[in-house]
Design goal:
lysine biosynthesis; 8-stranded parallel beta barrel; 12 helices; EC 4.3.3.7; single chain; Aldolase_TIM; alpha/beta; diaminopimelate biosynthesis; lyase
Length: 298
């Protein structure tokens, strides 16, 4: 799965003044990412506000993106949930032929045991031939997919090809890398943790900040994977305040505020998410201006 090496951007879903999906802006964001030379796009992950989209809207977005991209860059489809049976139906309903892989978040709210999580992913793996990336984000799901479960799934199913891990648990990352089968990918699910994760063997990043800074995140990723640590650190530290601001008032409100600041997308979100407060918006404006000045001086 070499298409999953490097940086994938978890694309936002823009909304218009009527709270409908803004496909024109979505198309421009896709072109912005391709121009930034990112390695792949992740469609309808957490950053895409998937939880507030209907099934019809999801199908429309998956279809639109595939047609717009037209094979120019690999695509990953975010398809997850906490109802295993319904999730399997969704996989059967969606045309996945243009997509290189499925990114599937671990079941949230239910708080299943590790055996329940294992059987959930086993059911997905048996229902499709499409490669699957486990998405572990305990801060949102309420439960961790532990390293033992991840390695077990990687060994038992050839089409479970990687894990996007946003747990922030480096002991877990160490165990995954030590015990995983060859070819199974550890992917950072957190812009801020990507650089140190590479030292353990992570092959890339699924980025939120890349929505607004695709060229910079691509350069950071390339430098890190080439072991050009000094150059990677310069970019990492320049962007790190914005990494934090992406999550100060919940994702994707932060990154949409950043995108609005650079003229790429409105701040509109769907309830229960709301745009960031004015103090955070001013912090974002200040950091974007500082970054612009640094780039101008370099």
């Amino acid at each position: 799965m070499n298409t999953l090496i490097g940086v994938g951007v978890a694309l936002v879903t823009p909304f218009d003044e009527n709270n409908k999906v803004d496909f024109d802006t979505l198309g421009r964001l896709i072109e912005f990412q391709i121009e930034g030379a990112v390695d792949y796009l992740v469609i309808l992950g957490t950053t895409g506000e998937t939880a507030t989209l209907s099934m019809n809207e999801k199908k429309e977005i998956f279809s639109y993106v595939a047609k717009k991209v037209n094979g120019r860059i690999p695509l990953v489809a975010g398809i997850g949930g906490n109802n295993t049976g319904e999730l399997l139906n969704s996989i059967n309903e969606i045309d996945l032929s243009p997509y290189a892989a499925i990114l599937s978040v671990s079941p949230y709210y239910n708080k299943p045991t590790q055996e329940g999580i294992y059987l959930h992913y086993a059911a997905i793996a048996e229902a499709t031939n499409t490669p699957i990336i486990i998405y572990n984000v305990p801060g949102r799901t309420g439960s961790n997919v532990n390293a033992k479960t991840i390695v077990r799934l990687a060994n038992d199913f050839d089409n479970i090809v990687g894990v996007k891990d946003a747990s922030g648990d480096f002991e877990q990352y160490n165990m995954i890398m030590r015990e995983k089968p060859a070819g199974f990918h550890l992917i950072s699910g957190d812009d801020a943790n990507f650089l140190p994760m590479v030292s353990l063997g992570a092959v890339g990043l699924i980025s939120v900040a890349g929505n607004a800074f695709p060229k910079e995140i691509k350069q950071l990723t390339d430098f890190a994977l080439e072991n050009r640590w000094s150059e990677a650190r310069v970019i990492h530290f320049a962007l790190s305040p914005l990494f934090e601001l992406c999550f100060t008032e919940s994702n994707p409100a932060g990154i949409k505020a950043i995108l609005n600041q650079i003229g790429k997308c409105s701040e509109r979100t769907r309830l229960p998410l709301i745009p960031v407060t004015e103090p955070t918006r001013q912090q974002i404006k200040q950091e974007v201006e500082q970054l612009k000045n640094k780039k101008g001086q370099s």
